[in-house]
TrEMBL record:
Pfam families: DUF2510, RDD. The chain crosses the membrane at residues 119-140, 175-193. It is a multi-pass membrane protein. GO terms for cellular component: plasma membrane. This is RDD family protein. Residues 7-36 form the DUF2510 domain.
Length: 275
């Protein structure tokens, strides 16, 4: 069978899309068969103009003049679309050339999830983990429960000295709570990423995570690496919390950033420098 010439064909992975075949392999250029901005699809209509002459689209690729091919699967890079009896020609680059540039894909042509869907999935996961993970972490840190209970009692009695002391005692249990919560979140992510590539939030939005180079659930090492950045952010948040709580037990009432800069916060205004 001879090699199929370059042109626009049915996308083997999506029946509603077209994908450009460069004569050797499938490219990343895709476009809807029908643009929402067009009142009528041009698919299947005869080409206008001089027979055998195809205008170029805005991307520089030749306008498709080859028959559509219904694919049943994703071919390898060296496998061309099979030839078949012509069923008509395209009048112009389908759905206008700019559509190809608006659709971001992976290297193998899979459309990327939008930022909005990623945020929505993150919010869903955040609510679920906030409830379930928070309950697990709270149950796993009885010291935090006891200290918080004593702190509320001191506050209700108006015992400021006891309340201040108990606030300083919250540091250790709070750190334990944060560690347990992080472990719960990490376990949740690792289980879903390495089995389906979808957390519950991603399932709800119809998106998934995969390696950039290949499809499929994440290997364990990749999934762990993906948790490094959130972990770093949580450590920074914890450091910020400790920094602002430090004056509670420091004799000079300095936060950590005060100690680094050799500063102290005092009552009242500061005198202006004399010119």
């Amino acid at each position: 069978m001879s090699q199929q010439p370059s042109g626009w064909y049915d996308d083997p992975s999506n029946a509603d899309m077209l994908r450009y075949w460069d004569g050797v392999s499938w490219t990343n250029h895709t476009a809807p068969k029908k643009s929402p901005t067009l009142s009528q699809s041009t698919i299947g209509l005869p080409q206008q103009g001089t027979p055998g002459q195809a205008p170029a689209d805005r991307t520089g690729a030749a306008t498709p003049t080859t028959p559509m091919q219904q694919g049943t699967g994703w071919p390898s890079a060296s496998q061309a679309p099979q030839q078949q009896t012509p069923q008509g020609y395209y009048q112009q680059a389908p759905a206008n050339a700019q559509w190809m540039h608006n659709i971001k894909t992976t290297a193998d042509g899979v459309p990327l999830a939008s930022w909005g869907k990623r945020v929505a999935a993150w919010l869903i996961d955040g609510v679920l983990l906030g409830i379930v993970g928070g309950a697990v972490a709270w149950a796993a840190t009885p010291a935090l429960q006891q200290t918080m209970s004593r702190l509320f009692d001191a506050a209700s009695r108006g015992d400021q000295a006891a309340a201040t002391q108990l606030q300083s005692e919250l540091i250790g249990p709070s750190v334990q709570f944060g560690i347990v919560l992080w472990l719960v979140v990490t376990a949740y992510c690792l289980v879903f990423w390495t089995t389906t590539g979808q957390t519950l939030g991603k399932m709800a939005l119809g998106i998934s995570v995969r390696r950039a180079a290949e499809p499929g659930p994440l290997p364990l090492g990749t999934a762990l690496l993906r948790r490094v950045v959130p972990l770093a952010g949580q450590f920074l948040s914890l450091l910020t919390l400790i920094d602002y709580l430090w004056p509670l037990w420091d004799d000079k009432r300095q936060a950590l950033h005060d100690k680094v800069a050799s500063t102290q916060v005092v009552e009242g205004k500061q005198p202006r420098k004399q010119p």
